[in-house]
Write a structure and sequence with these properties.
The chain folds into three domains: 47 residues, Transferase, Pyrimidine Nucleoside Phosphorylase, Chain C (Transferase, Pyrimidine Nucleoside Phosphorylase, Chain A, domain 3), CATH 1.20.970; 238 residues, Nucleoside phosphorylase/phosphoribosyltransferase catalytic domain (Pyrimidine Nucleoside Phosphorylase, Chain A, domain 2); 86 residues, Pyrimidine nucleoside phosphorylase-like, C-terminal domain (Aldehyde Oxidoreductase, domain 3). It contains 16 helices and 13 strands. The strands form four sheets. Strands 1-4-5-13 form a four-stranded mixed β-sheet, with helices on both faces. Strand 4, helix 10 and strand 5 form a beta-alpha-beta unit. The longest helix is centred in the middle third of the chain and has 17 residues. It is globular, with a radius of gyration of 22 Å. The chain starts with 6 loop residues before the first helix and ends with a strand. Bound molecules: uracil. Uracil binds next to helix 9.
Length: 431
């Protein structure tokens, strides 16, 4: 078959700063998925896009082309509004676990297609797989059935959803081209739009443990994604939230499930509760429920009931004990004073090195591994006090985890006032 364009011409156009035409974009995404545009050509184009950017029309078309590369699901006939949440990823970010059943307990459908962790941020599926028996892979029919009966489903995205993105993301990962706001936005939104949710709430993280280190970049990413959602007819809002410190007191798979259970039982760390409730309020509003208080279903037990039903529907035992690591070690406070800094990236890296995350896509993770924090910024500390417990099945990992944590903790003299405000930094809505 003769091809409509020459890949080299498309690369050169972007290299020289031109906007790609809709036809060029449709062709290059499709031809790459078919294997006609070679990996080295797509790497050059990805680098040109990273350096030159894309305008709103280009990003919108690029997203549509990635959606068109695969199947598109549709939940509009479920009989209840559907709403999903996507987080750009952070350390200790277990919010999906309490959030999905919480929102579903108000009668909305929450189709939450999730991924596994790669690098220092954990994956929701890895966390849930620490629950004995729980199954991540569901057929489309099983997912739909669970949305109808339970209301919430957290499962693996099928390979049919935006295959162009799957291929391109793997390429960006190894060519230094992940950090392009247009490509991150198109990647995330192509999967969410293809998934067929009726509304979407984004949690865009900013800080050392996030993709975006600067608030202005986080705002630009949030704005780009909200615009893409609006262009595609998907009601989308975004919260920009702090990821300079880990969320809650745990980073690691079973450790994070245990903390999520505390939240579902009406307790849990204040920052995790604050973010869960804020995102739930956004999701409920997107589904038409503006006069309800999500916190009442945490203290009232309705969210926990939905959690148990959701776990059972995927063959998990919500009452079985969670796995624990075979070995623990402690990190002690080096001085008296006030804890003013606890670096999210360092804690994420340590949890990963302890075995909570993977370095290759097919590697198993340790269910019990991770980092448990005993103090958060703002807390007074005494020299020798335990600040963190490290958990792993393989004690030879402790040394590298300790190296990751070498500069993680900042202690200021007594009387210092750390900035310990809300995790909620900003909100972006459709314009
Ligand atoms: N997550 C995605 O799905 N895609 C990106 O490009 C970055 C984060």
């Amino acid at each position: 078959m003769s091809e409509a364009f020459d890949a080299t011409d498309v690369i050169i156009a972007k290299r020289d700063g031109a906007a790609l035409t809709p036809e060029q974009i449709d062709w290059v995404v499709d031809a790459y998925t078919r294997g006609v545009v070679a990996e080295e050509q797509m790497s050059a184009l990805a680098m040109a896009i990273l350096l030159r950017g894309m305008d709103r029309a280009e990003i919108s078309r690029w997203t549509a082309a990635m959606i068109a590369s695969g199947e598109r699901m549709d939940f509009s006939d479920l009989g209840r509004p559907s709403v999903d949440k996507h987080s750009t990823g952070g350390v200790g970010d277990k919010i999906t676990l309490p959030l999905a059943p919480l929102v579903a307990s108000f009668g909305l459908a929450v189709p939450q297609l999730s991924g596994r962790g790669l690098g220092h941020t954990g994956g929701t599926l890895d966390k849930l797989e620490s629950i004995p028996g729980w199954r991540a892979a569901l057929s489309n029919a099983e997912m739909r059935e669970q949305l109808q009966t339970v209301g919430a489903v957290i499962c693996q995205a099928g390979s049919g959803l935006a295959p162009a993105d799957r291929k391109l993301y793997a390429l960006r990962d190894v060519t230094g081209t992940v950090e392009s706001i247009p490509m991150i936005a198109a990647s995330i939104m192509s999967k969410k739009i293809a998934e067929g949710t009726g509304a979407l709430v984004l949690d865009v993280k900013v800080g050392s443990g996030a993709f975006m280190k600067e608030i202005d970049d986080a705002r630009e990413l949030a704005r780009t994604m909200v615009d893409l959602g609006s262009d595609a007819g998907l009601r989308t809002t975004a919260l920009i939230t702090d990821m300079s410190t880990p969320l809650g007191l745990t980073a690691g798979n079973a450790l994070e499930v245990a903390e999520s259970l505390e939240v579902l039982a009406g307790g849990g760390p204040p920052d995790v509760v604050e973010l869960t409730v804020a995102l739930a309020a956004e999701m409920l509003a997107a589904g038409g429920l503006t006069d309800v208080d999500p916190a009442e279903h945490l203290t009232g037990g309705q969210a926990m009931d939905t959690w148990k039903a959701m776990i059972r529907a995927q063959d998990g035992d919500p009452d079985a004990p969670l796995p624990t690591a075979r070995h623990t070690d402690e990190v002690l406070a080096p001085a008296d004073g006030v804890l003013v800094g606890l670096d999210a990236y360092a804690v994420g890296l340590a949890a990963w090195r302890l075995g909570a995350g993977r370095t290759r896509r097919d590697e198993p993770v340790q269910a019990g591994a991770g980092v448990q924090l005993h103090a958060k910024p703002g807390a007074p500390v005494r020299a020798g006090q335990v600040l963190m417990t490290l958990h792993t099945d393989t004690p030879d990992r402790f040394e590298r985890a300790r190296e990751a944590l070498a500069d993680a903790v900042t202690i200021a003299p007594e009387g210092a006032r750390p900035a310990t405000g809300s995790v909620l930094l900003d909100r972006v809505e459709a314009r």
